[in-house]
Specification:
Elements: H1 3-8, H2 11-18, E1 25-29, H3 32-39, H4 53-60, H5 85-97, E2 102-105, H6 128-136, H7 139-146, E3 165-170, E4 179-185, E5 188-194, H8 202-206, H9 208-223, E6 232-238, E7 244-251, H10 263-268, E8 280-282, H11 302-309, H12 313-335
Parallel strand pairs: 5-8
Antiparallel strand pairs: 1-3, 2-3, 4-5, 4-6, 6-7
The structure holds adenosine-5'-diphosphate and magnesium ion (MG).
Adenosine-5'-diphosphate (ADP) is lined by residues 23, 103, 105, 109-110, 112, 169-172, 174, 179, 195, 235, 247-248.
């Protein structure tokens, strides 16, 4: 996979080409101060300025005499969240134009690894603070911002300049069993995988031929030769009426999950014995093979993961210091005066 391929899979590159085949979306340039805020580990607090929760609470409590005191802890420090008034109003305007609730992503990725942190355990957002909470909790978003070309083969060439963008898509309830990933090599559809491969869907088994045909037709009628590049991965959705929609476009390479295939299989061309024309469609065929959701591992607080893998040296040092202090305290207790209760 080359850096150029990653560049052409950005949302703002493919959306204008395939606008009619996909979910209505808006693209907003991401200001530099917002990027910095997203990358800053210290400020998880988000401004409440685009939230009406506080107001609702005040209205409801107007007839209540006593003020509710949330905390009497004097040591509580107030961390002021940065405000981005201009950007906030642009985002709110876009959310309204898209019907009030949106699915957010950056140039390539959505914060799928962070949905557990949202109140509704979903990526559905109604405000900029909903979006910030997800983005700041997501390793996928950090990856987009810090190392989009990590797995490219042409590491010696300079990184192309990226203009970061916030993508807001109209919220659409997609049934996971209708989602498929299509692998396109040399402008040919070579493989299709059920996207939510951890589950067994009876309708896929029953309609295998129709699905295969629908996706092949969609590809050859609407996508083939219209995209800049000949190797890519297409995510599509087949709705309950059998209509196929484009959901996303991804680079053809390791950064993209190969789901029920391996990258080796996909890149090797199927060997000489296999006909080039063969389109392989894989899906989960029985309940027995059902596996845990792939994003589950992201639910552990990052600190614990870092500690256990030794990823973050500073966290490890802090942890060791803590252990050392505990040990010293224990040693003091053993060797010195034993304090016992006088009562
Ligand atoms: N507009 C939307 N509304 C609701 N859910 C969506 C929307 N777009 C995508 N999704 C869901 O989120 C998943 C990931 O979306 P996608 O755009 O492919 O992000 P990524 O490239 O980070 O995986 C999709 O498989 C789909 O289930
Ligand atoms: Mg994608």
């Amino acid at each position: 996979m080359k850096k150029e391929q990653v560049v052409s899979c950005q949302f703002s590159v493919w959306y204008p080409i395939f606008k009619k085949l996909t979910i209505k979306s808006r693209i907003l340039p991401l200001p530099q101060d917002v990027i910095e805020y997203l990358l800053d580990d210290g400020t998880l607090v988000v401004s409440g300025s685009d939230h009406d929760t506080q107001q609702v609470f005040n209205n409801n409590s107007s007839d209540v005499e006593e003020d509710v005191q949330w905390s009497d802890d004097e040591t509580t420090t107030t961390v002021t969240a940065p405000e981005f008034p201009e950007f906030t109003s642009k985002v709110l305007e876009a959310i309204n134009a898209l019907g009030g609730s949106v699915f957010p992503k950056l140039n390539w990725s959505a914060p799928r690894d962070a949905n557990w942190i949202a109140l509704n355990s979903s990526l559905q957002c109604h405000s900029l603070s909903d979006i910030f909470l997800l983005f700041k909790s997501s390793d996928f978003i950090t990856h987009d911002l810090t190392q989009p070309f990590l797995q490219c083969s042409d590491q010696d060439s300079p990184d192309p300049v990226i203009k970061y963008e916030l993508v807001l898509r109209r919220w659409s309830e997609l049934i996971p069993g209708g989602e498929f990933r299509c692998f396109v090599k040399e402008n040919k559809l070579i493989a299709i995988s059920q996207r939510d491969y951890t589950q067994f869907y009876q309708h896929i088994l029953k309609q295998e031929q129709q699905i295969r045909q629908a996706l092949q037709d969609f590809f050859s009628q609407h996508v083939q030769f219209r995209f800049p590049g000949e190797d890519f991965v297409l995510d599509v959705y087949r709705d309950s009426n059998g209509k196929v929609w484009l959901i996303d476009l991804n680079p053809f390479g390791e950064v993209t999950d190969s789901l029920l295939f391996t990258w080796e299989e996909l890149t090797s061309g199927g060997g000489q014995s296999q006909q080039q024309e063969d389109l392989v469609f894989r899906y989960t065929t029985s309940e027995v093979t059902v596996q845990p959701s792939p994003c589950l591992s992201y639910r552990i607080p990052r600190d614990f993961v870092d500690l256990s893998t030794g990823e973050d040296a500073y966290k490890l040092i802090d942890f060791l210091k803590l252990k050392k202090n505990q040990q010293e305290e224990e040693e003091e207790e053993e060797g010195g005066v034993t304090v016992t209760s006088t009562d």
